[in-house]
Amino acid sequence: VQTHAFEPASVDLIVSRLGVMFFDDPVRAFANLRHAARPDARMQFVAWRGPAENPFMTTAERVAAPLLP
Question: By three-state DSSP, how is residue 62 classified?
């Protein structure tokens, strides 16, 4: 996303399901998406929060930790 040559102002909706978390350079990627977006475009995305705010995804690790060397 950060290097793709999008057509300027060519999209009206940007959707990402967990992809934005993996941008190598988030500032560059979001700037490039903004370049591709029309002035009234919308962006919707889902991203995990940190481990402290997402206990479901760390439960197995916390349970197994005392059993591992």
Answer: helix
- Strand partners for 14: 43
- DSSP three-state, residue 59: helix
Q: What is the sign, positive or negative, of the torsion defined by CA atoms of 15, 18, 22, 25?
A: positive
Torsion angle, alpha carbons of 14, 51, 61, 57, to 10: -40
Q: Kindly list the distances between the CA atom of residue 66 and the CA atoms of 40, 52, 60, in Å, as whole numbers in the listed order.
A: 52, 19, 11
Answer for the pair 20, 27: CB distance below 8 angstroms, yes or no. no
Per-residue pLDDT tens digits of the chain, which is 69 residues long = 999 999 999 999 999 999 998 999 999 999 999 999 999 999 999 988 888 888 888 888 889 999 998
pTM beyond 0.85: the answer is no
